[in-house]
Design goal:
The strands form four sheets. The protein has a six-stranded antiparallel β-barrel. Strands 3-10-8-5 form a four-stranded antiparallel sheet, with no helix packed on it. Strands 7-6-4-9 form a four-stranded antiparallel sheet, with no helix packed on it. The chain has eleven helices and 21 strands. By secondary structure, the chain is an alpha+beta fold.
């Protein structure tokens, strides 16, 4: 009985302790839940207030780049071809071996070249004998030769005078042909510039092209001014020269025709410059619209096509007029040269009659020098029968063998340099931003830890079209060479197309565009069109905004809209040209908290 009572008492105490601990634990849990709830509500609940993520306007460097991929290739790869024709008598090049500059790769049958060297040596010896002979007393043969030489000089002068007359006749014909086309060109240029086919309300085409894109780039106004000045210059030259042409004829004196040729050439150059400047304006107009996914006027393509035709015509006329100018100049110089030759040979004849003198001896010495030069040329021709490496490199392939027939079009071997370059393909939009000399960063899939700097060395002038996509190859030279980089490896290139230092930068997410109505109200005062704005934090809220964490700050004052003018941008930052100052605090994004909280 006592044992039972003891056990019962013990069990009762144990139950009381357990209940007491449960009550204590429950109280602790309730305290933690309440503390967590009120703490969460204190930290995260804002009763529906708006939180603002902010940033400061900074001064820094903005870099814009274009990326592309391609392959590594040799800096210089050349199919070595012979300068002489004939049968290959020996091949010394071996694939995979290095060859120094000037190393003999192959030899071509040189029997004829060796014979030419022997003949040149004989001719030199003959000239030396003639020099020795002239030192002897003058004979009848020498006198006859001097007389014949004088006659030839006079005949040469007569031929040059005839050539000059023909050059003047050809020149007048060329000017006449030019004036068959130039009036139409001037009329066409005028219609393209000053008609109203594109604009509304009588606006000239030249103003339409410039005004349509000046909000995107004010360079259009300079292009328009260049077109206007060039056209006016061409018009002035054309009107004056056309009057001169109408008053002249093919029977005019040589001086009049020569001046007409020169003025027509200068006038045609002015017209060609006007055509070029007009094309520059239209292409600038198209580029700026296409950059913004806007469609240019269809007539712009028709104008460019016509301008291309005009360019062909002006180039053709310029070539013809330049050829005539050279013909006139060459004929005049030939007459002068003939006069000098006549004077010299008259003197030579007189001296010959008097007997050998220093002038005769000098002439023979000149002949000796000519024969020595001919011997040098023959030896050079003989040397051309040995195909040599033009630069140091590795023989990649041997294309010929002994007994083959070689000519100037036969590739004996393929030689490549050890120096590497990158060839990267870019689309037509990106390649328009690429220029030679721009800095490039290069990475390689095969060597992930390697980055090489370089420069744009060459940009294809003609693109390649594949399935309607146009691509251009850009060649990039390496600043340093690394043995781990092999030919045909994949390479990625980042070309720095634009870099501005000491500019104001803000995150891209901070830039906002005005609505159409806001835009109209913003620019109703006649000021420049401002399309973008930034939400700027009030000065009294700056410290609060900068001290906030990533969840943003609750500001006392609503941020105000600040119109800004933006410049270039990359993937992260945008340049601010006007409207902000360094250190301003701006809103990058807005966090709208919900009123309901989860318990």
């Amino acid at each position: 009985m006592l044992c039972y009572i003891a056990v019962k008492f013990t069990m009762a105490n144990l139950i009381k302790k357990i209940l007491a601990r449960k009550i204590l634990s429950g109280a602790i849990i309730l305290v933690l839940i309440a503390g967590g709830y009120f703490g969460y509500a204190k930290i995260f609940s804002d009763d529906g207030a708006i939180r603002y993520a902010t940033a400061q306007v900074q001064n820094g460097t903005l870099i814009v780049s274009v990326s592309g991929s391609g392959q590594v290739s040799a800096f210089n790869q050349l199919d070595v071809k012979p300068k002489a024709n004939g049968e290959i008598t020996a091949v010394y090049a071996k694939a995979g071996e290095e060859a120094g500059a000037g190393a003999i790769l192959a030899a071509i049958d040189s029997q004829d070249a060796e014979r030419a060297v022997r003949d040149a040596e004989t001719a030199l010896e003959t000239a030396k004998l003639e020099l020795d002979k002239i030192l002897e007393p003058v004979d009848a043969l020498a006198l006859l030769q001097a007389e014949n030489s004088l006659t030839q000089a006079k005949e040469s002068k007569q031929k040059s005078e005839d050539d000059l007359k023909k050059a003047y006749e050809d020149g007048f014909n060329t000017v006449a042909n030019a004036f068959l086309e130039l009036p139409d060109l001037m009329t066409g240029l005028y219609d393209m510039l000053f008609s109203s086919a594109l604009g509304v309300g009588g606006q000239w085409n030249i103003d339409y092209y410039a005004d349509s894109v000046k909000t995107y780039d004010e360079k259009s106004l300079q292009y328009k001014e260049d077109v206007r000045v060039a056209y006016q210059k061409a018009r002035t030259a054309y009107d004056k020269n056309f009057d001169d042409y109408k008053s002249a004829s093919r029977f005019s004196d040589a001086s009049t025709i020569e001046k007409l040729i020169d003025k027509t050439y200068g006038e045609t150059k002015d017209i060609a410059e006007a055509v070029k400047n007009e094309g520059n304006l239209i292409r600038f107009y198209k580029d700026k619209l296409i950059e913004r996914n806007l469609k240019p006027a269809a007539l712009a393509d028709a104008h460019l096509s016509t301008l291309n035709t005009y360019t062909g015509k002006t180039n053709s006329n310029l070539l013809g007029l330049l050829s005539v100018q050279r013909a006139v100049k060459d004929s005049k110089e030939a007459i002068i040269s003939a006069d000098r030759a006549i004077e010299e040979r008259e003197l030579s004849l007189a001296k010959t009659k008097e007997g050998p003198d220093d002038l005769d001896i000098r002439a023979k010495k000149i002949t000796v020098q000519q024969k020595e030069d001919a011997l040098i040329t023959a030896k050079q021709t003989l040397a051309d029968h040995y195909v040599r490496a033009p630069f140091s490199g590795v023989v990649a392939k041997v294309n010929a063998k002994k007994g083959d027939s070689a000519s100037s079009g036969t590739a004996i071997a393929t030689l490549v340099t050890k120096q590497k370059i990158a060839e990267v393909s870019l689309n037509e939009i990106d390649v328009a931003k690429i220029k030679t000399g721009q800095r490039v960063a290069l990475t390689f899939d095969a060597v992930p830890e390697l980055t090489i700097t370089g420069q744009v060395a060459e940009v294809d002038a003609v693109g390649t079209v594949s399935q309607g996509v146009v691509t251009y190859v850009v060649k990039i030279g390496f600043d340093t060479q690394d043995d781990r980089v092999k030919t045909a490896m994949s390479v990625s290139a980042s070309v720095i197309t634009e870099e501005k230092q000491n500019v104001l930068l803000i995150p891209n997410s901070a830039v906002k565009s005005f609505t159409r109505q806001d835009f109209a109200e913003q620019n109703s005062g006649g000021q420049g069109a401002v399309r973008y704005y930034i939400e700027i934090v009030d000065d009294n809220d700056k410290n609060l905004a900068l001290a906030a964490n990533v969840s943003g700050a609750i500001l006392k004052n609503t941020p105000r809209r600040q119109p800004v003018e933006i410049g270039i941008a990359n993937d992260e930052f945008t340049e601010i040209i006007s409207g902000l100052q360094e250190g301003d605090v701006i809103v990058t994004r807005t966090v709208q908290s919900t009123l309901a909280q989860t318990t």
